[in-house]
Amino acid sequence: MKEIRIHARAGQGAITTATLLGFGYFNEGKFAYAFPNFGAARMGAPMNAFVRVDSDPVRLRSQIYEPDYVIIVDPTLLRGFNCFSGLKEDGVAIINGKDDIELPKLKAKQKIFVVPANEIALKNIGRPLGNTALIGAFAAATGELKLDNLITVVKERFSGKAQDGNIAAVKEGFDYVKNKLKG
Amino acid sequence: MKEFVEGSHAIAQIIKACQPGVISAYPITPQTHIVEDLAQMVSNGELGSQFVNVESEHSAASVVLGGSATGVRVYTATSSQGLFYMQEVVFNIAGMRLPVVMTCANRAVSAPINIWNDQQDSISLRDSGWIQIYAENNQEAVDFHLIAYRLAEDKRVMLPVMVCMDGFILTHGMETLDLPEQDKVDKFLPKYNPLYKLDPADPISMGLLADPDYYMETRFAIQETMKSSIDYLSEISGQFNAVFGRDYKDLLIEEYQTKDAEKVIVAMGSVCGTIKEVVDEQRSKGKKVGLLRIIAFRPFPYARIYEALKHVSKIAVLDKAVSLGAYAPIAVEMKAAFYGKKKAPQVISSFVAGLGGRDITLESVREIFRRLSAKEVNSDFIDLKPELLKEEYGK
Questions:
Q1: Does the bond joining A36 to the residue before it have cis omega, within 30 degrees of 0?
Q2: Which fold has domain B2-244?
Q3: For B244-274, how does the pLDDT look when each residue is reduced to its tens digit (9 = 90+)?
Q4: Residue A178 is part of a domain; what is its CATH number?
Q5: What residue spans define the domains of chain B?
Q6: Cβ atoms within 10 Å of B182's Cβ, excluding its own
């Protein structure tokens, strides 16, 4: 079983991120359970979305406290929340942000990838919604999902201009992390 | 066909396949996605139902009551305060023996306002004459709606059915589901053919005054039907399995590792998935533990539960609701199921967890097994925050 915890603010598309990842796993024949947990029921309030995935149908219904992977959609949440709480010893975190953001000290095997997902989105989609760039980065950083699969997912989810832009964003997010790994 | 789909969206799909003549609902979190989807389907022309927009849940319930009385299949969905606002009509629907099907997206009740999940809303309406079945996962939630219509419209039953699914955990949870195909739905669920209906060409009256000479028999009749519905649930479950290949056994309870168990948790709804994980974990350490999941809360399957648990020495009842000032709702039933019987557990302890969306974790379930000892406890709250209880008042 793998567990992904997404940190965002309501309205930033965390549920879409969880949904797209869930579809990705579904396409690979795995069983995903993607679900949100809202804080205060209003735009901008901190919230989480989760994906729990396994080779069998998922029965566990609690929130995720010891994630394998963390995706932080809004880096301002790093102030005031411990977004890395419970992250596994060899866990991976993907942060939507710029290189100059302050990062906590991690354990030896944990990895953080800071990805300028909003910039990538702005360039490709015209709006600062970094979710598709982040799932591309997630795929590259974790090896959990194939890039082609995510492109299929985006094609099913979006149409027209939004589709083209989001496919480009997934690719750019993916390549950004691949290049970091090479470097 | 297998799909990766949100619970609410799947419910809308299955209701569409059931082709209700009238749908009426008022949006309330976490039920909203279901009725939004249905409204969209009607607006797109995919679904021929009459969708009646109303200004409140009281009206929504009244519209489906009226729709059902005219002899068509109807549907509504609600949660929490919405269900309470319907309450007067909810009792009327059962009293008039109308086969309404409703989804309750389970949510805590006010005050304080809380949009998150527990089961206080539907449990508080346990005495209304509605059959209540609780889903563990979204596949069940989908399938139970089909079963609900079959059961409600069965001439031997003619009672409304509430399908209860945990708010957010199921309604907003996406899972891989097998959504029933239309031809199979049609095979399983025949067109609704009412015994009586409101028809200007052949006028009758419904829901009239019943004075002391008549009223009691109406309640007796529902009570008797509820008792027989225990068997009808099992029968219809078998027919469902024959068409769809999913076996819900008797549709009253699920026994999970109870055969040789010494400690068993009794619970209802989605939390049972989490409990199964803990049961497997404890079993792997050689501990004889199990889960008895209640599917039908009304009618309550006393005899079936007695047979399933009479050999178990310790039972922990997990309620996601309270009856303030009394034993917790499921706990009361469990104690009643064994009172005066030859064989009975030594301990039936009662635990309250998950109120207002307080997360029930693996550790919460382990804690219940730990607290289940020779000393019986009642309404023992799990995962309380002591720091929030320290406040001193009146100073």
A1: no
A2: Rossmann fold (3.40.50)
A3: 999 999 999 999 999 999 999 999 999 999 9
A4: 3.40.920.10
A5: 2-244, 253-388
A6: 11
Could you give the CA distance from residue B136 to residue A33 in angstroms, rounded to a whole number?
13
Specify whether the CB–CB gap between B354 and B320 falls below 8 A. yes
Residue whose C-alpha is closest to residue A24's, from A178, A115, A121, A132: A132
What is the extent of the structural domain holding A70?
2-182
Do the Cβ atoms of B360 and A62 come within 8 Å? yes
Place of tokens 């095997």: A109
Which CATH code is given to the segment(s) B253-388?
A: 3.40.50.920
B172 touches chain A (CB under 8 A): yes
Torsion of CA B221, B227, B232, B233, to 10 degrees: 130
Beta bridge pairs of residue B53: B25
Q: What is the DSSP letter of B201?
A: T
- Among A61, A63, A65, A157, most B C-beta atoms within 10 A, so best to mutate, is A61
DSSP state letter for B169: T
The reply to whether residue B174 touches residue A37, judged by beta carbons under 8 angstroms, is no
Contact A32 B174 (CB under 8 A): yes
- Dump pLDDT digits (tens) for B199-250: 999 999 999 999 999 999 999 999 999 999 999 999 999 999 999 999 999 9
Domains B2-244 and B253-388 share a fold: yes
Q: Please choose, from the candidates B118, B30, B166, the residue with its C-alpha nearest in 3D space to the C-alpha of residue B352.
A: B118
B269 close to B123: Cβ distance less than 8 angstroms: no
B63-112, pLDDT tens digit by residue? Answer: 999 999 999 999 999 999 999 999 999 999 999 999 999 999 999 999 99
Query: From the list A15, A57, A62, which residue is nearest B176 (CB)?
Result: A57
3-state class (DSSP) for residue A80: coil
Q: Could you give the number of structural domains in chain A? A: 1
Q: What is the pTM of this model?
A: 0.97
The tens digit of pLDDT for each residue in B276-330 reads: 999 999 999 999 999 999 999 999 999 999 999 999 999 999 999 999 999 999 9
CB B101 within 8 A of CB B144: no
pLDDT at A40: 72
Confidence of residue A39 (pLDDT cuts 50, 70, 90): confident
**Model pLDDT, residue B394:** 57
Question: Using CA atoms, how far apart are residues A67 and A51, in angstroms rounded to an integer?
Answer: 10
| ipTM > 0.90 (yes/no) | yes
Residue type, B311: H
